[in-house]
Amino acid sequence: MTDKVIRLFKILLAIQSNPGISAKELADKCETTDRTIYRDMRILDLIAPITNEGYGKGYRFVGNFAMYPLNFTEQEALVFSVLPSVLDTSKLPPGFESAYDKVMATHVKETRKRYDTLENVAGMIQMGTPAYRENSANFLLPIMEAIIASKTIRAVYHTQSRNELTEREIDPYYLVPRDQRFYLIGYCHSKQDIRTFRISRFRHVELTSNRFDKGDFNIAQYMKHTWSIERGDSLITFMIKFQPDVARYVKEEELFVRPKMTDLPDGSLLFEVTVNHEREFMNWVVQYGPSAEILEPASVREKFKEQLQRWGQLYGQ
């Protein structure tokens, strides 16, 4: 199916660049048969105003219809840019240079336009600064650019748990917003594994010329049972009873996992969910104070009781 879609786009671009092109010429260009081209044209007739004015006339668009195909890949742009240096310009028809300049100017303009759009989007996203740093560089733009271009980044990253800086090469897959922060999920070449990076901990980011392929990586599967961003190795099922005064607010929470919620006769809410990491979920529960009671697992309930006792001792109770 993918090959067919690509071929249909090739046909449309070929008709636009060479009005009157024949079925045989299209077949040669697409490395297929005339019969396949005829079948493809029946599909394209439904989505584009294409006409064939008779035998030997070939295909062309009707009216002012046009596609805008100048989303060159880097390789295509490079090949096109060196074209004049490998051609005998004395044998080129008049107007080639001006046409070539227009195409390249359009490509440069569109590249700049895409970058400006990306820059504006990155500028609209306001990110905080870690408390221990007054000034923090915002690497959101180059990371977004790398994700869109499927390019590996070379970065310097601060690992908080070890309080050290490391140089890494990362294939950036996805940006994930969590708790007023942005995280990058991607393949770390040094660890040879998928890792999660907090954007504010990058000290330097630059794009490389190396391209990557995500393969069969599935972000939904990767984040399954993850309450926020930290992923654990084992599943824990929680049962929390929320009192009536907060039940409606809990229902309104925008969550990344799918809980089971049961309304109880007294207006309270029974909340059941399975997650792979305890700490972040408990941080969320604690914000509801005494309006949230941990029913299960019993081990977490006992641990929380001990914590409450220590808090009581801290405040002289």
UniProtKB/TrEMBL annotation:
Residue span(s) of domain WYL: 140-207
Family annotation (PANTHER family): PROTEIN PAFC (PTHR34580:SF1), PTHR34580
Protein name, UniProt field: Transcriptional regulator
Highest taxon above the source species: Bacteria
Location of the WCX domain: 236-311
PROSITE patterns reported for this sequence: WYL
Domain spans labelled Helix-turn-helix type: 7-59
